[in-house]
Structures are given as structure tokens and as C-alpha cells.
């Protein structure tokens, strides 16, 4: 992997630069106050403008400002007219377009394709402030506002739609977003390097159509285009199929057995003798890397993958195998008579670069124009600190690894501690509690492959599945040190961990679990087993339920030692590809056996380019070699089945009983319908009174309360409920433990 130029190599020290804008301007009046007659770059976003590094437009805006450019923001413009896109005038260099921190379709629609009633990234959570497929709409309007100005699309919506992709909301394979948006350039993944480079080159007068060599960028080219004559094409436009098996020649034969069959060989000129070159291992590896650097992999065309699910799965597998920036090759995919060209993924930021990005002079507040409006996304993160990015988990339903990469990029300890002090000193209404030190996960901070050479050559889709790689460092000592120093800062009363915990990693460090449980859990801790059944977990690339059991044992042990009543909040996914009705039933039985009453549950939503989405659409498993005869993945697609799977997760809710009864009878499991302890649901809706009773299950959560409610009461020092003691004659031993379920190993 080549060492890139530092992002801030040519940036003057802060003391030598002019003062930063209090907020990046959103109006002409703000531009005038700053002494600007125009903006060099105008960023368009589907989110409210919150000047905080957790919001992409603020981060790249401040980064470009530090490079010396004048940056304006157009937030949540009315897309029904072109005039809002002219509010700041014509940008001197380019438009930067994003849908926001979320894909606009995921933001606007539920897993059942129903429009959401609120939007966490909008003032007062008001819905419908962004269009469907916002990147496409914003790019088109920007082009209309000032024709001829380059348009660059980025962030997660553009990143996950950079090639032909299955779109759940239209139930079809759509073209690359480059075609619909008409953007000149698409920047995928973490955009800092490419964005700074392209901005410098445009400022120097280079034409955006000629910028074709930046990592992390995608663009349209004529079909068959190559950067130069040294490039070669690796064709991966078809799956492997059995071919003709030729008879092996007899090595002792003095003459060809079939001269006619080898006429071309006989007519060939005498081979030219070539000297044997002896190369060292390092030289051979360097030659392979150089060849890969000049090789592009041709994926099956849009026309092919849009009509052939098997080829779609094959393309998905090839795409994901080319995701490590250390060895990934460029990709190209035909769309009619043009190609979408994707350069290799961006190189990760170094720790000093991460520090500089997060140390920029953010206002750390919503733009003043919002007044006292309630913005849920801001309120959720205002007292939290992002300590890293990336995830090497590779969960098939998640877009973090696809977008941010699987190489962890961490900030330094001093940078993180400075931000905590900044929150303490400048954030309004701060009461002494940091709500999170995390990122995509809570406990991957500064974890990495033990050998950089191995990391750069690895093609594993996950470092922790099916088992934790022996080359992965799992030492949590640096994170433990950070926790201890953070909570020792004067004025900091409590530091909670709100990011999802990778528990299979955590159990490798009991000292970390003890530190976490003793000091950083506020009554409840989020954890995501996602399922209990091995078949489904294998399609998620998640660890078996045994890892959860081991973590729970440590969690309970250290909670008891600390004298705290604390709970794990497990998250599960319904209707994930590979999950059958029987799998969901077994999960429901596991939940009841462990006395879990889930309040928040989610149904699988196929997001663009995710491997689980490939399974949903194609019925094939891209985690293994894809052929016509390869594994078929059973998937719940009908609304009725998806509703049943979700109902199983909330088996205790009377509203779900009719659906579950019908499902159990269809499955031949009517034996689980009844009013006894061994039954999953009552025989009639009259049993609803059971749920409203507040009886305590010995050692468990009171009936009638979800575990979230109990944990919140515990955090406030209140009992879970008024204890209930049943008359001795009515106490019956539970026989749920005798119900046979599928093996979870």
C-alpha cells in the first residue's frame, strides 16, 4: 500500500490561518458578513446543518475551509424549484452533493415500505424534507441552477449505489447513480483524500473530466476505455461452468496422436528461448502488486445483472472481494454503450490525520437559523465522542464495512481527551455525562492486523467470522487506558458506552468487560446477537449464540461484583435471508426461556449493495462461490411471512397473537398454543390479562414489562416492580427448558 500525502501537509498551522467562520454560510447575508462575494464550493445536504464532526457535510466543509477554500452550505432545499439552489450564487469550483448521513430511502421509508412519520435529521423531526433518491434529485437541480459547474456526489447514498444495485423500494435492479444523477464524479467511502485532491486540481485549472486517477472515485467513460496501454482487463463477466475435458496426451508418445487437432500448434513458430530470472519472494510479491495496480476487473454488465439473479450474485461477490485498499483492483461495469469505472478504494487516514480532522474548529451546534428547534439526531450525539471509524466485522446486512472499510482508523488519546474537555467547557446544558465513546462499534478502537503485509494481501470479508482471525490483535488495553483517563477528567461525572459492542471480541479481554461493566454501563447495555440459529447467523456472518452466553456470564459476574443491577439489551433481526419460520420460532422460544420481552425490534431492510440484499434478491449466497447450482438461500419476501417473523420477536404482545396462532398451526406447532407455562401464546385473546399482570418471574424480568423499562428503572435506583409472591400451591416449575430447539452451535 503506497504511503499517501498527508491531508494537512500543505495547510498552514491554525495560528497562521485566518479566523474560521462561526458557521459555514447558508445565506447571502452570512457570506457578506464574512466578506465573501462568492463561494468556491457549495455543499448540498439532505440533513439539517449541524456544525459537528458527526455530520458529514460539516466535516468535509470544515476540512475544505482549513485548506483555504470558501465553503457554503445549502441544507434541505425545496427540490420542487431550482431557485433554492441559487441561494448562494454560482460556486467557483464545484457542487458537492449528498443525501445526508443516511440513504434517503432508508431515512424516508420503513422496512414495510411505508413512509416514516418523522425524520431525526430535520428540525422538529419534520418528515418529507428530502426527496426520494435525494442525490439524484439534488444533482439534477444543481446542474439546472448553474449549467457547466462540475457536480461531485458523495456520502453513503452515492457510495452504496455506485454500480448496478438492487433497489428494494422499486423491487428492481437500478443503474449506477452516476447515470441518473448526471454527476461528473462520485466519491465513495471516506471522502477526505479524494475531495482534497480533486479540489486542489480543479483550483489549479484542471478539467474534472480529466481527473481519472484518484482512489475512491467513480465516473463514466466510453466502453472499453483504459487509462493507458499498460493496463489489462480481467474478465469476470460470467460464472465458472464445467467445460470440455480433453484427453491428456501421452508423455511418452514420439509423435502427436492427432496432428489435425493440433494444426495450429504445429504451424506455430519455434519458441524463442528466454533466460530464467530468479526473483526473491519480495520481488515476486512486488511484481504481483504492480500487475494488480494496472488491472481492472470487468463485472457483468447492467443488462446482465438486471435480468439474471445468479449473475447479480456473482457480481456482488467479485465486488466485495475487491474491497481491501491494500490489494483491490479497479472495477468496471458496462451500462449500455458506456462504462462505470471504479478506482481502488481510498487509503485509510493515519492517526495524525484523524486527529486534525476532528480538531477542526466546529461550532458543535446546529446552525442558529433553526432557533430552538428539536433535532433528534443532534440531541443523540451532542455529548458523545467519535473515537474511530471503520469495522472489520463484515456483517452482511450492514453498510458500515462497505462504506468506511474494514481497516480501523483511530484518533489518538490526547485528541479524544481534548474533545471531552471541549464538550465540558462549551456545550450548552452539559451536566457531566459523556453519552458515548465509540463509533461504528464500541470496542474496535486501535485494533488491527498484527502484520501490515498480511493485512494488505488479505481478501477475507470479515476478520471475526467464522472465527476471530489469528492475525487480528484483540488487546483492549489501549481502550481501557482511554476509559480510565477520560473519566478522570475534572468535571466529568460519568462516561457511558452507547455504541454497539462486539461481544465476541470483548470476551477475549475479561479485564475490558470488567472495566466496562463496573464503570460505563448506565443500567443497560446494547448488544446485538441478531439471532440464535446457526443457519441464519451464517448468512449474517455473526458469531454463534455461545459467544453471547459467554459475554452474559462475564457481564452478570462483574455487575454482581460491582453491586449493580444491570441488564443487557439484545437486538434481533426478523426476516433476514436464510431465516426460516422454524428459525424464528426457535428464537421466540429462546426469548421466552430467557424471559426477554423486546420493546424495539427490526425487520430486515435490503439496502443497496449489501451482501444480505444480494441473498434477498438473488436467492444465492455470495459468501461462497456462485454458480447455477450453488446454495439457495431461503428468504422471507411476502408481507405475510415478514409480519409473522416480526411477530415472533414480540410473542408477548396480544396484537401479535392472531398472526402467531395462524403461523403455528400452519407449521404444525399448535402444541405451543395454550394457557400453560410451556406454551408460547394463549389459546385466545382473553389471555391478554396475563400480560397486564405484574408478576415477577424468579430471577428474571417482571411480566408485563419490557427489559428496557426495567433497566431504565434500575438506572434511576427504582425496583423493577413491586415483588409478587405467588401462593405455594400455584407455583409451578417452568418446563420451557425441556422444549427442544434447533442446535445453536
From TrEMBL:
Residues 377-643 form the Radical SAM core domain. [4Fe-4S] cluster binds at residues 391, 395, 398. Binds 1 [4Fe-4S] cluster. The cluster is coordinated with 3 cysteines and an exchangeable S-adenosyl-L-methionine. InterPro entries: Elp3/MiaA/NifB-like_rSAM, Methylthiotransferase_CS, rSAM, rSAM_horseshoe, rSAM_sf, UPF0313, UPF0313_C, UPF0313_N. It holds the Pfam family Radical_SAM. SMART domains: Elp3 (SM00729). Its cofactor is [4Fe-4S] cluster. Gene3D superfamilies: tm_1862 like domain. Keywords: 4Fe-4S, Iron, Iron-sulfur, Metal-binding, S-adenosyl-L-methionine. Residues 714-745 are annotated as: Disordered. It comes from the Bacteria. One of its GO terms (molecular function) is catalytic activity. Residues 735-745 have a biased composition (Polar residues). Belongs to the UPF0313 family. This is Uncharacterized radical SAM protein YgiQ.
